[in-house]
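dumping the sequnces here before i forget
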Amino acid sequence: MKKILLATALLLAAMTARSQDYTIPVTNINQHGYPHIMPDLSLQFVMRAPDANLVQVDICGVKYDLSKDEKGVWTGSTAPQVPGFHYYSIVIDGVSVADPASESFYGCSRMMSAIDIPEAGCEDFEVKDVPHGQVRELRYYSKVTNSWRPVFVYTPASYESGKKTYPVIYIHHGGGEDHRGWVEQGRTANIMDNLIAAGKAKEAIVVSVNSNVPGRGGYSKEGMSAYASELTENIIPFIEKTFRCKKDAKNRAMCGLSMGGGQSFYIGLPRPEVFRNIGIFSSGIFGGIQGQSIDLEKEVPGMLSNTQGFNKGLDVFYISCGEQDPRISHTKKYTDQMKAAGVKVYFNSFPGDHEWQVWRKSFHEFVQKIF
Amino acid sequence: MKKILLATALLLAAMTARSQDYTIPVTNINQHGYPHIMPDLSLQFVMRAPDANLVQVDICGVKYDLSKDEKGVWTGSTAPQVPGFHYYSIVIDGVSVADPASESFYGCSRMMSAIDIPEAGCEDFEVKDVPHGQVRELRYYSKVTNSWRPVFVYTPASYESGKKTYPVIYIHHGGGEDHRGWVEQGRTANIMDNLIAAGKAKEAIVVSVNSNVPGRGGYSKEGMSAYASELTENIIPFIEKTFRCKKDAKNRAMCGLSMGGGQSFYIGLPRPEVFRNIGIFSSGIFGGIQGQSIDLEKEVPGMLSNTQGFNKGLDVFYISCGEQDPRISHTKKYTDQMKAAGVKVYFNSFPGDHEWQVWRKSFHEFVQKIF
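..and the predicted 3d for all of it:
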């Protein structure tokens, strides 16, 4: 094992000498020199696989063939990528797997490799020299699943030694992800630490849940109802019993990305007595890629027929989407319909497809508006 | 993507029907039916890879070839395994990667798949219906590496709402692992929760550090000295500033596995003014697989020449090793040498090789002896 590692390290060191001006992404595991981020944001890959017939990199929906040299080393580059966090796979003779050179992240319903391409202006996503909060893993007993379930809770820097109570944000991952998403891919703690230190966001507790309810129908009506019980009858009481929380709707927010945005729409919006702050990032509920249409009034009774009442129930109603996300046209259409009816909704879009950089930016903005 | 997942799910469901009496390990990712643990503790694997020439499973140092059927599905079984947590890889045409069906764990210097085979009598490693502590991720600034570094801190169930101060265990991973090891592979929180609830261990804070010091020589004299500064000048002051700790040597323990056991020997033992409780699990320092010999008195001056003084400096000196670990013969030899000289050392061994089940059992025993 050690010999192989050494041989690989020497090989990579030799290849490294050929390239200039590249960046090693933070998502690479320590000793791995590849992938590289090149100045044009293309990615360079090197992998030793003498016995393979075809090695590819699959990133953001595009597969790139690597080329094999006489020593069995495969190399190749992708097209320039946009900045941000991208899941990717290595495909070895048709089998899609995580790149051993990368850290792994739970996404697409398996452990995926990913590359994080830094973006100017997004320094709030990084660890900075400011007071840092804690991210805590706890277990609560769910009467919905009849099992102990994990949850991650961010507490701000002042929490540990203080006595204050704090508002709480319940934040939701997308399909094929879990409670790890917002903590690891989403960098929630850095965003909160940096915005709080700059006085741009209120101190708040952030609860990153696993909103998959196994065996209860996933993203169906039944799944939605099961998760509504999970959230309101299990998670919220547990959090409010365990932490120093402000316990009124004004001081609770529900937000999420994609599937989690749908949950915020279907569970959060009709419950102004629980949440007065709702954030929906890149959700497919507005028709999404399939192009189905929805009836806003039917889904959230009163939204259009009693707009004044609906508005009174909310402090912040936030919707966002990536500008290259196929979901954006429907999201805009329905947001326009809401606005035309007098619904107080804030909409913003960010460059990018259905991906984490858009969601980090959405959370970064949402959290500055609430509480 | 969804179509492939569905096809795979149907395929796996069909194959599942053929097997009987298997267990799905907790380390499998939700929807994946394989690997299976069979009643004789052999493992059954199924993987779709029509274009591959050879698919193997590499577990505990042995490679098993799978067989391909006419549809391109590879199946096969391993020999019966011992219970416990085993890293493994799938080898696709010679490339060793993590199994997409498994959760990933940082080990062997990359993200590895792993299988956890339950063992009767080891229920303390599981989540039980007892008061649960929290595992917190924090960042401290290291003046050794000049960077922010992560650390995991377990606090017992009573910590959150109480005012007590607690003793602290500084626990160390092995080579090719990091601070995640004891939290994820080691199940430290479950072990602490269950032993505390049963009144078998004192309530304590457990600090799981990253004891790799990049660029400072790894497991060399220089690396050891760099990590000694990291621990005593950076980590301990940070922990004692942040948490309600008892701040004397009697209430500090240092322990670790393999490389971390070596660090506990070379850094912990000579500092009785810092740590009066030392645990060394499966360390290679006693000669290990290479069979070098060491001079105990030279490594820890006074251990043999001033045994009484050495003994007075410690409350608990614990050494353990796996019974099938090549390191055991030297570990026993040197422990016998210590005992013959009058050193108060407790030694125990557990069935198993150089692996996590031995380390979980070692920690489980060590923690019942200290404080």
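The first helix of chain B runs from residue 2 to 16.
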